[in-house]
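Need tokens for this chain, all 214 residues.
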Amino acid sequence: MPHTRLDHLLQAPVEGWFPRMAEEGDFEQMAELFDIANAKTIATLWNRDAPKGQTWVDMLKPMMFGEFGELNYKNIVVADVGGRAVGMLIVNVNSDPWPEEDFSLMQPYAVPFSKLRARLPGYGYLRIMAVFPEFRGLRIATNMLDIAFNLAIKSNWKGVCATVHEGNTLLLKHYRKRGLKEVARSEVVEHVSYDSKSCWILMSVDTPGGFLPV
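Here are the structure tokens for all 214 residues:
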């Protein structure tokens, strides 16, 4: 998958932080943010599935530093405070179509939200948007969402979409405020934080004109 270059969309410093493209030295913070964005599932489930002698961090590193892939650090925007990455954004365009074998290769817990995502080919997918708790309130998520919206417009994507757990009321409220609306739901298969009878929600907003400023 080609890299989604975002550097031409980055803004000037905002309220004590500034967005920049990720660097290799940000890996430790990006790994933490990746786990936070997945409600602490990654460390638990990936450790369970890791080859003998490896941890979930060992599994993540080649994904971020390999030549291609959605998690490649060259695709990632971070929010920088004093040289430290305190927030992270990964947005990738959905392929069209998704072969059924793609899902058969996934771990069962990844299938429900991946199938939701696949319902909207041609949309930019908010793969990761996370901020360390102590740095929330600086409008990092707001401005990173603006970067994703601007990329969708410049790239002629159909819109932007995201999967959110129904229990993440804060993020759901934020997305609705920016114009994203519910498209579909799917039950959770396996998760360390969410009940299996709860649901993932697919949300989306179309371009142009659907994004709401704050």
